[in-house]
């Protein structure tokens, strides 16, 4: 049975892949930021997920023992922090970055439920 850290690394790769794919879709279609270089979108997707997932896996579980409270606070934390990353990198309205972050995290969360 793989250790917790290996499971985390797999979750990190899955989360980055899913959230970045959704991010590309949203930025290139709905928000029509076609002039935004793909490398910038890729960087934003990796940075946003990498900035939050370690806290969700290694810090928050030590602070919150209730599963439902943990999920609620963890997802809110991720959406807010990741929206700030998108806001500063893409230079878009904060309401747009919050929407993008919520959709990316929702898709990642659902994928995690399906995988597990």
Shape: globular
What characterizes the major β-sheet? none
**What are the secondary-structure elements, in order, as H or E?**
HHHH
Structural class: mainly alpha
- Termini separation: 15 Å
What's the mean pLDDT score? 93
Low-confidence stretches: none
* Total number of beta strands: 0
Q: What helical percentage do the residues reach? A: over 70%
Explain what the structure shows.
This protein is mainly alpha-helical and 116 residues long. The chain has one domain (15-115). The protein has 4 helices and no strands. The chain starts with a helix and ends with a helix.
What attributes characterize this protein structure?
about 120 residues; mainly alpha
Summarize the structure.
This protein is mostly helical. It contains 4 helices and no strands.
Secondary-structure map:
Blueprint: H1 4-30, H2 38-63, H3 67-90, H4 94-115
Helix pairs in contact: 1-2, 1-4, 2-3, 3-4
């Amino acid at each position: 049975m793989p250790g917790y850290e290996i499971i985390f690394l797999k979750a990190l790769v899955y989360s980055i892949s899913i959230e970045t794919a959704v991010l590309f879709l949203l930025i290139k279609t709905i928000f029509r930021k076609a002039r935004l270089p793909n490398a910038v979108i890729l960087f934003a997707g990796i940075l946003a997920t990498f900035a939050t997932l370690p806290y969700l896996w290694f810090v928050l579980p030590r602070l919150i023992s209730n599963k439902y409270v943990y999920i609620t606070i963890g997802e809110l934390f991720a959406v807010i922090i990741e929206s700030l990353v998108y806001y500063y990198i893409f230079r878009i309205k904060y309401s747009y970055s919050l929407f993008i972050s919520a959709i990316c995290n929702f898709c990642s969360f659902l994928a995690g439920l399906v995988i597990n």
